[in-house]
Amino acid sequence: MLSFKSRRFLKPFCYGMMAISLLSFSSCYHAAPDGPSRFDATIKTTNDIKQLNRLETQLTVTPEKAALNPDYQIIHNIAVPYVPEYRMGSGDVLEIVYNLKYGRTSEDYRLEVQDKISINLPFYPQYSTSVLVRSDGKITVPLIGDVMAESKTPMELASELDRKFKKYFSDPAVTVAVEEFNVKVAELRKAITTASRGQSKIAPITPNGRISFPLIGSMQAQGFTVSQLEKMLNEKYSKQVRDLNVTLILLEIHYPKLYILGEVEKPGAYDIASVPDILKALAIAGGYKKSSELKEVAVFRNEGLERPIVFRVDIQTALKTGVPLTNVKLKPGDIVFVPKNHIDDVNDMIERIFTKGIYAVLPFSTNLSANYNLNSATLK
Question: Do residues 264 and 336 share a domain?
């Protein structure tokens, strides 16, 4: 006769025997036989250690080997693992540093849009005027009408106007003076006031993957490297402001998430600086529990795919047979699920039946007696 005097069931006892009667299980769970093991070396003596050292020396990646291996690169004649350049993502924070060159140049100044110029006719002052270079690059001059001014030097513009005015005057003697220039630089200075270091702007990458830049507007940033975006910015700014160089500084990195769930010590979402393999993912989560089923680890993937996929990784067999699990790379947004083994599934089921079933309706102090007949053997 079994007497139940508390909410706790006898966990150490093999539930499989009772499950024959209660849950129609035939026996305790037994894992399939392990496959053959393969080891490169077995350490028993000092000579074995020396042999292992010789093997490591033979397998060391040299610059000569690295030249034939795409996973390595040679830097200062040293073979180092190839690390792809970081591609920016949503939430990353950039500082855009604007370097304006004010040094003396031998080139004549060329007019830009929004520059203010004065056109003087000393012998015919009634036709003198001050005008702005419009967005189409033109100015409007009395008697003459529209004239292209953008990208011309003041002297070049004065020569052209003098030639056109000669249709009306014998000696116009036109001169052009620049009153206001580098207007876009002034606008840029007003826009770059968020950083403490002066001519720079701090901007996060928005959830849609873009950043808004002064003068040139919104641009895609997510998915590009810092050097790629920097090159595109300088190309666009060169069409707006001369003698400007833009430098990007990556201030904050908000790494993509990796989700590790199930029978691990610390399940949850983790920021990943670099994409790990399946074993490193388990290490990030504190390792697997004894109750885990390492033959049935599932990886759910949806990032960048037409439809979600899921694949199974038999870690237990792979470790024993020498399959290189470091080749099982994970991607940002992957969900790694480590399930329970079958014994713990049975334990949980039985515990739910007794603790949440019977004891949910009976008081704690109740003494319950029951007889179980298992394969003609009676437990009392």
Answer: yes
Q: Is the residue at 30 inside a domain?
A: no
Confidence of residue 148 (pLDDT cuts 50, 70, 90): very high
Q: HSE of 213 in the Cβ direction (CA atoms, 13 Å)?
A: 22
Which of 239, 95, 135, 112 shows the shortest CA–CA distance to 186? 112
Write out the DSSP string of 46-82: HHHHHHHHHHHHHH---HHHHTT-TTEEEETTEEEE-
Q: Is 377 exposed, middle or buried (0-12, 13-18, 19+ CB in 10 A)?
A: exposed
Please report whether residue 281 resides in a domain: yes
Rounded Cα distance, 223 and 209, in Å: 8
Please name every residue paired with 97 in a beta bridge, in sequence order, or none if there are none: 200, 247
DSSP assignment letter at 358: I
Distance CA 366, CA 120 (A): 110
Both 221 and 278 in one domain: the answer is no
pLDDT tier, 144 (very low <50, low <70, confident <90, very high otherwise): very high
Indicate whether 98 and 241 sit together in one domain: yes
Give 277's DSSP letter.
B
Asked if residue 237 and residue 98 are part of one domain, the reply reads yes
Structural domain for 135, as ranges: 116-180
CA distance 256 to 269: 10
- Structural domain total, the chain: 4
3-state secondary structure of 41: coil
- The tens digit of pLDDT for each residue in 285-339 reads 999 999 999 988 999 988 767 788 888 889 888 888 877 787 788 888 889 999 9
Task: For strands 2-4 and 377-379, give the pairing.
Answer: unpaired
Q: Which of 316, 278, 315, 323 is nearest to 300 (CA)?
A: 278
Cβ-proximal residues to 330 (8 Å cutoff; 6+ apart), any chain: 258, 275, 276, 277, 278, 281, 299, 336
Spatial separation of the C-alpha atoms in residues 19 and 26, rounded to whole Å:
8
Residue 267 burial (CB count, 10 A): 16
